[in-house]
Amino acid sequence: MWGQDVSALGVAIAAITGVGAFWLGRSLSRRWQQRRRNKEQAAARAQESRQARRARERGEKRGR
Asked: What share of the chain in percent tops pLDDT 70?
C-alpha cells in the first residue's frame, strides 16, 4: 500500500514538473524569438536608403 502512495505521488510530481517545464520553455522561447525578430528588423532598417526609410515612416504614420 505504501508503494502505491509513493508511486501516485511520484506521478503527480512528475506531471506538475512536466507542465511547469513546458510553460517555462515556451515563455523563454517566445522572448528569445522576439529579441531575434527585433534585431533582424533593426538590421534591415540600418540597410535601407533614406528614401525607403521615409516611405516606411509615412506608412507607419498612416497606419496609426
From this structure: 89
Any idea what DSSP says for residue 48?
S
Confidence of residue 10 (pLDDT cuts 50, 70, 90): confident
% helix / strand / coil in the chain, to the nearest 5? 95, 0, 5
| Longest alpha-carbon distance in the chain | 77
Amino acid occupying residue 14: A
Question: Which residue's entry shows cell 507542465?
Answer: 19
Residue type, 52: A
Q: In angstroms, rounded to a whole number, what is the distance separating the alpha carbons of residues 50 and 54?
A: 6
Please list, in sequence order, all residues whose beta carbon lies within 8 angstroms of the beta carbon of residue 48, skipping any fewer than 6 positions away.
56
